[in-house]
Amino acid sequence: MKRFEKKADHIENAQVMKVIRQYEFGGPEVLCYEDAPIPELKPREVRVRVPNLQNSHACWHPD
Hints:
Elements: H1 2-13, E1 16-22, E2 31-37, H2 57-60
Antiparallel strand pairs: 1-2
């Protein structure tokens, strides 16, 4: 149980998160790996940690 409490504490104390942003149309070369501030939680909201995410080519190119 301590292992999960430690991870939750790490999430609570983090100030930034890693994001992949796309500012223009194109292939993987236009994706930007950046730091972004973690949004403030509003009442009745939760924060979920997503350790891995996969995005398909179809999401980048609507052809």
